[in-house]
Design a protein that fits this description.
Helix content: 25-40%
Strand order of the largest sheet: 4-5-1-8
Number of helices: 9
Structural class: alpha+beta
Shape: elongated
Distance between the termini: 57 Å
Length: 297
């Protein structure tokens, strides 16, 4: 069987289901019957609501027809959304391969003109591809990165070695092994270069902030957050060239006292966190507080 995935996108090697109620078995049959006799079609639906889960299975009588569907119909639009087609993975090893991310390549700095087909054509020479996807926003515009999942780790390594640094459509591509969010977060804690600073005087400019940090290493960027009137919000970011420089600045400048309107205030200096990380930490603190309050009742 060959699964047709018409309404999904693939991120970090996992499915994100996007329900599209207009796609039916009949619509899929009209699309796939042009390549050969179709044995059966099943749109997977929610057990209770019977709404589409955003993926389906198309079975052909002949394997040649299934292969032709893969070659000619992949990324064809069905009800206005491009479908992705891949072989149904019944082999337990293949399923495990998809889950653990082995063979999955993350590609960034893609030009907006690079679509799914172009990405597939670029990477197909290095091995068998299970799935290939350029990540897009709600309007269907490229977000500048994508994923290529190979059937084996060796093909992925070969693609990374050959394509990383290659220039396509005027932009240099960056390819690396895909990592889960938890793995990336753990790595950021020890390899960060972006520093978050708050509680400095309102009158400080970027030059003042840069002057405070310049003794710790090469600074690649410095910015202060301001409101719509241009007034400082008293926090900003400093980006170093090296992790060691950023770590040293955090260790030595955190809780450093500065003069604000004649009073001494302590600076907060720490690793800059993503919005998702901050939300995760706030949720953790919130539920910890709730558990403590419940225990004290």
């Amino acid at each position: 069987p060959i699964p047709c995935v018409p309404w999904q996108s693939q991120t970090s090697g996992q499915y994100q289901r996007r329900v599209h109620g207009e796609v039916t078995e009949a619509a899929l049959f009209n699309t796939f019957c042009v390549v050969g006799p179709v044995a059966s079609i099943r749109v997977c639906r929610h057990h209770h609501t019977r709404r589409s889960l955003g993926y389906a299975y198309v079975n052909f009588h002949q394997i040649e027809d299934a292969e032709r569907a893969l070659d000619t119909l992949n990324y064809t639009k069905i009800c206005g959304r491009a479908c992705r087609i891949m072989w149904s993975q019944r082999d337990p090893y293949a399923k495990q391969l998809r889950k653990n991310g082995e063979g999955n390549v993350f590609v960034s700095n893609l030009d907006p003109s690079i679509d799914n087909r172009t990405l597939l054509d670029t990477f197909s020479m290095f091995g068998d591809i299970l799935s290939c996807k350029v990540e897009t926003d709600k309007e269907g515009k490229s977000r500048g990165f994508g994923f290529v999942h190979y059937a084996d780790k060796e093909s992925a390594d070969k693609a990374i070695n050959k394509v990383n640094g290659m220039e396509i459509s005027g932009k240099k591509l960056y390819c690396t092994k895909w990592q889960s969010r938890n793995a990336r977060d753990g790595q950021l804690e020890t390899t960060f270069t972006n520093v978050y600073v708050k509680n400095f005087p309102v009158a400080w400019s970027e030059d003042d902030l840069k002057k405070l940090f310049e003794d710790y290493g090469q600074i690649n960027g410095c910015a202060i957050s301001r409101d719509e009137k241009g007034k400082s919000r008293q926090f900003g970011f400093v980006t170093f060239n090296l992790t060691d420089e950023a770590q040293k600045a955090v260790e030595e400048l955190n809780d450093c006292e500065v003069d604000i309107d004649g009073t001494k205030e302590k600076l907060f200096v720490g690793r800059a966190q993503s919005k998702r990380e901050r939300q995760k930490l706030l949720n953790k603190l919130y539920y910890a507080k709730k558990r403590k309050e419940k225990a004290e009742e």
